[in-house]
Design brief:
single chain; 154 residues; 2 domains; 5 helices
Length: 154
C-alpha cells in the first residue's frame, strides 16, 4: 500500500514541476523580450538589431528541448505589447516590422524560383547546342578525307 502511494506521487510531482518550469520562464522571457525590442526601437536602433537582441534573449531563456521559432517569438512580443498596452504604448508602431508582408515574401520566393528555372533551362539548351555542334563537326571531319583537303590537288 505504501509503495502504491509513492508511485502515484512521483508522476504528480513531476507534472507540477514541469508545469512550473515550462510556463513561467516563457511569460517572463516574452515580456522582457518585448521590453528589449521596444526600448531599443524607441532608443533609435534599427529593426534588425532590436529584433536580434530580443529574439536571442527569448531563445536563451526558453531552454528545453525545442527552440523558439522566429514567428513564435514575434507573436510573443506582439502579444505582450498588446496585453500591456499602457506600458508599451510607444511600441505599437514597430509591431508591423515583426510580421512582414507574407504575400510579398511568397512573391519574391516564386520570382527567385522562376529565375533559377530559367537559368537551368538556358544551361540545358547550351549543352544541347554544344552536343549538336560536336556531332556536326564529327560528321564534317568524317566526310572530308586527307585527299580532299590537299590544297595542291586539282
Amino acid at each position: 500500500m505504501q509503495r502504491s502511494k509513492k508511485k502515484k506521487l512521483i508522476p504528480l510531482a513531476l507534472g507540477i514541476f514541469a508545469t512550473l518550469t515550462l510556463t513561467t520562464p516563457r511569460v517572463n522571457a516574452s515580456a522582457f523580450g518585448a521590453e528589449i525590442f521596444c526600448t531599443m526601437r524607441d532608443g533609435g536602433n534599427d529593426h534588425e538589431s532590436s529584433w536580434d537582441a530580443a529574439y536571442t534573449y527569448i531563445k536563451k531563456q526558453k531552454g528545453g528541448l525545442f527552440k523558439v521559432s522566429p514567428k513564435n517569438a514575434a507573436a510573443q512580443i506582439t502579444e505582450t505589447v498588446i496585453r500591456e498596452r499602457e506600458k508599451f504604448s510607444y511600441c505599437v508602431e514597430y509591431l508591423d516590422n515583426l510580421h512582414p508582408n507574407r504575400k510579398l515574401i511568397r512573391d519574391l520566393e516564386k520570382e527567385e524560383k522562376r529565375k533559377e528555372k530559367e537559368a537551368k533551362d538556358r544551361e540545358n539548351k547550351r549543352k544541347k547546342l554544344e552536343k549538336k555542334l560536336e556531332e556536326t563537326n564529327e560528321e564534317i571531319s568524317e566526310e572530308f578525307t586527307d585527299e580532299t583537303l590537299d590544297r595542291y590537288s586539282y
